[in-house]
Amino acid sequence: MYPIRKIFLASSLLFCCMTSMAQQDVNNVLDKIKGSLSLEVWHFDAGNKILEKQKVAFINKSDGSLKTQDAEWKTSVTAIQQEADGAVQLNIKFTLLSGTVNNASTAINFNFSDWSTKNYVMIPAAVYNGNRFPVLKGGYMPPYTSDMFCNKNVPLTISDNPRLALHEGEPSKIDLLTWNASTPVMSFFSPAMHKGFIVLTEPKTKWGINGLSVEENADRSKAGFSVTAPGVREYAAGFGDFSKSHDKPCNWKTGDEIDVKLYVYVFSATDIPSFLQTYMDKRKKLLGETPQYYVAPMSAIFHYTTLQLDKARVHKPSFYDTMYFPENSFTRFQLGWIGGLMNTYPMLSLNDAERSKWIANTFDFVVSKMQGKSGFFYGVLDNGITTVPERPIPDSIKALHPEIVSDAMVRKNGDALLWMYKHFLLYKELGRANEIKPEWEAAAKRLAQAFVTTFEREGELGQYVDPESGKIVVYNSAAISSAPAGLVLAAIYCHEPAFLKAAEAIADSYYNRFTKTLGLTGGNCGDISMDPDSESTFGLLESFMALYWATGKKHWLELAKAETALGSTWTVSYNYEFPKQSDLGSFDAHSTGAVWASTQNKHAAPGICSASGDYLFKLYRATGDTKVAQLLKDIINGHTEQVELPNRPTVSAGVTGAERGAKLGCSMERVQISDAEGRGVIGKLYNGSNGWTELNGLLMSLELPGIYLQTDRNEMFVFDQVQATSAKQKDGSILVTLKNPTPFDASVSVFAETSKQSLKPLSYTAFVHWPKVAVAAGKETIARVASNGNVTVIK
């Protein structure tokens, strides 16, 4: 069951910081944002269409009654104001005193007057800014219309997702269940009132999954946010489409009752970023932190995933001798995004001759076959052909723009730029700078210059670009998210101040255009439209921390904090209860830390595509904010849960025979807690693996310390799946006791420094020098950490 905190304790200790409230007191709190509370019973037809809503009348400060010809309902509202946190804790009970009621659901409504369509409505991982944007119909990855190409004024356009209406006269309603969101939350920010509203609910009650509903009236002057139990949608959202839902209301008999627990926040917020930071602070307040589960240490994940890459991602022969492919197909190579010229990075860290040849061949292949005349790279090479567009260009556009040969994802180019320079830095750190070929450096510098030239000419970088002419083919998305980070590394590596100047201008521009103004970033995934997505959010965070590394300016830390808060909206914050018969249910998988893909692709996945999240660690190190560290730890745990290990089938959980447990090191991009792909797909995995989920697992194991320790403060944070305690010694050293409760031997990296040293931004290759402490499976090791960070195993 869900790890829900017991929030209505009667202890005097608890009540010393809480105040009992009545229903009217709750309304007084909500009135600060022109809101009020009401309770209703919703009646449905034999299917799931609403026929009638009956309102409960309050008969005193806490109790309400609803009488009909055939039944009588009683309600009670218990409300407590938590003064320290600002939460209004609600426990609302519906009881059917007499009669029977068929096809009904209960509703807790937060009604807002003085409403504005300028309010920023956010349901995490599902709805951003109300999803109030132009829509493309056509299901998964719908084709772009002709007017979206070569049009600098193209509006941000999304797939057919749940949304509030863009135009007057249209019905404006969003119907979801809690499983459609990364956290069971509805929220909004009012720029006119400088106020925010957040309501957190339990994922379900004994009657089923709860519902989340937002509806505006005809003239958009009022809006209602309803938590329904059980939740009943008329239509269920899929991957860019809708289908008739299978939700069912309840049949109630005398004596039936339902309890719903909520946390409600009304708070001041100056802008969307400050609103999002409050969301990050409050998102776990109702359900609490999930327990730490011990599946495998980082070193075991690295070991088994390396075996998977060597077995399944290296092809002999390939287009160019032996090289690393990001996919299982050895005729189709994708650059960036899902692993091409990225999965080579952790393999380079192994520093052996055989893999080094494969890595060099991969570089040679990409540089010789995939770079266009402009300096931009093609995103795909398919059967030796690079000119196949990633986003099909209509003939009418080709006729108007004969200079455009094809198109490629800007995101893939941003990744290529960043990771080429990360490779170069690692080569140098390993003492192998002589292996970096001049043609690799020239290609990377040409790509950096292409970004600068395009931004100076266009004022943006678009979503798709023609690698030959350098012209933007599709404008207006945040798909460039990792490009400023790449330009930062290019500036340092090439001693080109112009690259750094451009990186700062691009990063500021995109933060202001998207995160600050719209409360979202998007268009970064290769199979979506311009939909909000997690990948662009974390990519911009990467860029902000790169700029902090290069400049030391606190400005970039402030932007990074806001971007992290947006990233937290994409990250599952609780453990969903998977059906026992599902793949994920069969091995008791935990969903906390899984990262949602996009508002079109309605599923979470094990990790950030495609990164370790080391920028979160760098932000934690720079600020000391443990919520940032915990977010990262959740993501690490969420990935570890999904990796197939000896005696723990995950991706092969749904198969039998010799294949079961035969996918060591594999992981799949599915942590499906919703019915977006059908109810039978909840908790389903597939007997395969994704190159990018393998990659981010390798990167987390490589670029993040297992244990981080500030020696002067004796403050420690454990990221690895080991247990650790520390004790300060008289000589200033610290004894760290490490216990390994997993069935795998661990090699735990320890990064120790002083608080003063933490003020200096961390280099990209710092991990090379972190000492490792071996801890056998089920055993204990004691290490002495000196004040200078040196580590000595003493037992």
Automatic annotation (TrEMBL):
The keyword Signal applies. Residues 1-22 form the signal peptide. Keywords: Signal. This is Alpha-L-rhamnosidase six-hairpin glycosidase domain-containing protein. It comes from Pinibacter aurantiacus.
